[in-house]
Design a protein that fits this description.
The protein is α/β, with parallel strands linked by helices and about 375 residues long. The strands form 2 sheets. The chain has an 8-stranded mixed sheet with strand order 3-2-1-4-5-6-7-8, sandwiched between helices. Helix 4 runs parallel beside helix 5 and helix 4 crosses helix 10. The longest helix is centred in the middle third of the chain and has 18 residues.
Length: about 375
């Protein structure tokens, strides 16, 4: 393709770089890049690739914009809360660079649709936050022979690499098996510094442009580790695993598999639930209004208790309860009537089971936790 007059003006700072020039910018304008996810990482990736002039930008996401996203997902805004993320991102990109063709996929990436979606793109960028999609994207890229630009963030730390089975290791070479379910918290569970995905996402976008140009030294065979608190970068050298089940010398994976089952997602959701130990949030409200004598115990962590709480509740974290020491339970007695709650009802059920084992006979777990309380009972209690 030849650059138009407007493109020469728009990308003039690129054209002045000998490593890019007219030929390089033409490559960028012809490139087709797929971004899986339009959240924390996908936001800076999509915005900067659009600004650079990538010809076709595919966006995969099935979520809607939530107010809690705005702390880090800069492609969205207050005016788009409630909209599909792919539509919000597409409109923002169109305002930035109307010459970029944006193709949206309002769908969850699965083993059924991944190959069809990825097939038409040159490079795939991972902006997801879960292990099943990472393994799925990696395997699809290996099968299709495409580079996979990886990024991951949590709390104050991030990672980035480029996995290209033609030139080096793939994601499975680094992580042959996923971690046990529940071991690694999500950003929704563990939190994330809002600026962090911007830093890691821009590194991913930078790798994409280098791959398109065929210039510089990419992160193939290297894992970059970043700590925002210490502002330090570290690097790990990666090797291709000859026994890798998908890119090794004798691959056993020839097609996409059930990645939720592989990563143990169904098992992760199978938390112990005893319906006889559950109580509805509405019933707890009636108990409080009637000034019934019972103990309302919040089993979340202290920092969560500072964010929001139900008036009249007492904080005893789940970890303290699971120590099963009466002396640490803030005066609770086995004869007390106790209602436990957490954020969503999972931890409070664990606490209820632990107290039952200690001989507490009148224990309930509030179904849905403080999220349900905020939704149905008291909207002034903020969600997080």
């Amino acid at each position: 393709m030849s650059l138009t007059r407007d493109q020469i003006s728009r990308y003039s700072r690129h054209l002045l770089l000998p490593e890019v020039g007219v030929e390089g910018q033409e490559k960028i304008c012809s490139a087709k890049v797929l971004c899986i996810g339009t959240g924390g990482l996908g936001s800076p990736v999509s915005l900067y690739l659009a600004a650079a002039g990538v010809g076709r930008l595919g966006l995969v996401d099935f979520d809607v914009v939530d107010f809690s996203n705005l702390q880090r997902q800069i492609v969205h805004g207050e005016s788009t809360v409630g909209q599909l993320k792919v539509d919000s991102a597409k409109n923002r990109i169109a305002d930035m660079n109307s010459t970029v063709e944006v193709v949206t996929y309002n769908a969850r990436l699965t083993s059924e649709n991944a190959l069809d979606i990825l097939r038409d793109y040159d490079i795939v960028v991972d902006g997801t936050d879960n292990f099943p999609t990472r393994y799925l994207a990696n395997d699809a890229c290996v099968l299709l022979g495409k580079p996979y630009v990886y990024g991951s963030i949590l709390k104050f730390e991030g990672q980035a690499s480029v996995f290209d089975a033609k030139k080096g290791p793939c994601y499975r070479c680094l992580f042959p098996e996923p971690p046990p379910p529940g071991l690694v918290p999500s950003c929704a569970e563990g939190g994330v510094l809002g600026i962090l995905p911007g830093i890691v996402g821009l590194i991913q976008a930078n790798e994409v442009i280098k791959l398109v140009l065929g210039k510089g030294e990419t992160l193939v065979g290297r894992l970059m580790l970043f700590d925002a608190l210490t502002m330090k970068f570290r690097e790990m050298r990666l090797r291709k695993d000859k026994d890798c089940p998908i890119c090794g010398e004798s691959p056993s994976i020839k097609k996409l598999i059930d990645y939720e089952q592989f990563c143990g997602v169904p098992q992760a959701k199978e938390e112990p639930v005893d319906a006889s130990l559950e109580i509805d949030a509405g019933e707890v409200k009636k108990m409080l209004d009637s000034q019934r004598k019972f103990k309302l115990i919040d089993v979340r962590e202290p920092f969560e208790y500072q964010i929001c709480k139900i008036n009249g509740s007492t904080l005893i974290p789940l970890g303290v309860i699971q120590e099963k020491s009466l002396e640490k339970l803030d005066g609770l007695k086995p004869s007390d009537e106790i209602v436990l709650h957490c954020k969503a009802g999972v931890r409070s059920m664990k606490a209820a089971l632990a107290l039952k084992e200690m001989g507490f006979g009148n224990v309930k777990s509030m179904k849905g936790g403080i999220l349900e309380w905020s939704e149905r009972i008291d909207p002034s209690v903020p969600k997080y």
